[in-house]
Write a structure and sequence with these properties.
alpha+beta; two-stranded antiparallel ribbon; globular; Alpha-Beta Plaits; 230 residues; single chain; nine-stranded mixed β-sheet; 4 helices
Amino acid sequence: MEHTDREYCLEVWGDMACFIRPELKVERVSYDVITPSAARAIFEAIFWKPAIHWQITKIEVLNPVKWTSVRRNEVGAVAGKSAIYIEDKRQQKNSLLLKDVRYRIWAKMEYRSVAKRKIEKDLFSHEPGRDENPMKYYQMFERRASKGQCFNQPYLGTREFSAAFRLVNSDDEALTPPISEEQGGTKDLGIMLYDMDFQDPKNIQPMFYRPQMKAGVIIVPPINSEEILR
């Protein structure tokens, strides 16, 4: 069966975003840019099947990084059988958020054989299993993305910040360049959350990497790369 290694691009934007740093648990503080796991979730919101996995390959930052701070009242208790009195459980928390974000996200469909769908120890494959038809999935994604269809509303880090998106045809249109070095487009972003490792359902672990943004472009390594920190 012929396998076409296609790369898709979505332009994604929103008024606010928060890609939460896991090391700061009390106050919500965002990373400077979207994480690969948040980018993957946007593709999955548009199209996902058990036979595929979205591998993010590149992130382009189109708007300069801008911050805003929001202080909100939250309830510091979990709803249960007993009543919650807001005046007793109210907490004020500060969130450091991104505003006016816009990205171009590039990703490839990777295929899992039947065995890999059962979450075994081997990593995702770039090749489809014998029981899969890649062209069927390509066409389904292209149709849904071009019409703006999604299974659930994509969001930018947290569900309160919804994301708008469009499918980019890089061959037919002139693309807006990413932010330049003068606009803050070249930066070492430090250790960032890459994704969660679901290979062992009883011991799900976070994976990290150290992204380098150069002229607004971040190259995302594959999941089996030595750059991924486990």
